[in-house]
Each structure stands twice: as C-alpha cells, then as structure tokens.
Design a protein that fits this description.
This protein has 65 residues and is an alpha+beta fold. The protein has three helices and two strands. It has one domain.
Length: 65
C-alpha cells in the first residue's frame, strides 16, 4: 500500500522544534532540509523535527529577547 502525501504544518511544528534558534540562512542548518520538503508521507511533521526540551525552549526564548 502506498502512503498518502500530506502537507507539512511548519506553523505548528517549527516553533516547538529544537532547531528553532538555528539561523535559516545557515546552509548547514537543519531548517533547509525541512523547508525543501513541503510534503511528507503519512505525516504533517517536518522531516528533521525534534521536540525541544523545556531547557532548550527557555534558552531560545531568552536569546530572542
């Protein structure tokens, strides 16, 4: 059985991702892989999504002021 292609929900997942603080302009950053894959098989999650831990979320929010 072939899986269904689903649109990636960047607006839902990116704010919660551990890579959120990484510059999108960094060509080695994980964001580029996700942004280059706007659809995913059987999932709305970006390909490199990893849930940020509570400590990472606090660090990101403090660095963004």
């Amino acid at each position: 059985m072939v899986g269904d292609n689903k649109e990636v929900f960047f607006d839902v997942y990116c704010p919660r991702c551990q890579y959120k603080g990484v510059s999108e302009s960094d060509p080695n950053g994980k964001c580029w892989d996700c942004l280059e894959s706007p659809v995913n098989v059987d999932s709305h999650k970006p390909v490199n999504f990893k849930e940020a831990s509570e400590n990472e979320e606090q660090t990101i929010s403090q660095s963004n002021g």
